[in-house]
Amino acid sequence: MQDRLARELKGHNILAVERFQDSTRHMIEFVVRKSENPYGSPGDEIRLFLDDAGYRNALERQERKEIKIKRYARIIEGHILMQDKKSKKNTGTH
Fold this sequence. Notes:
Strand order of the largest sheet: 1-3-2-4-5
Low-confidence stretches: 89-94
Radius of gyration: 13 Å
Order of helices and strands: HEEEHEEH
Shape: globular
Helix content: 25-40%
Structural class: alpha+beta
Distance between the termini: 21 Å
Mean pLDDT: 86
C-alpha cells in the first residue's frame, strides 16, 4: 500500500505541507475527465490534501463528471487513514 501512496501524481506530493495543516481532513486521488478543469487535462491523475470546503467542492465536481475520485483517505494530524469500500458506503463520502 505504501508504494501506491508514494507514486508520483500531479498536485500535492505525498509529503506536501498541505497534508500537515490543521484544517486538512481529506486526501483524494482523482482523474481529470473534462478539459475545462483547473486541475489539469483529461486523463491527468491528481492528488490533493483538502479541508472540508475543498472536499465538498471536489465532490460537486465529481457529480458534474469533471473528475472521478479513485482513492480517498481521512487525514488526522498528518496521518493518512485509507478508507475501504465498506466504510465509504457507510459514511456517504462518495
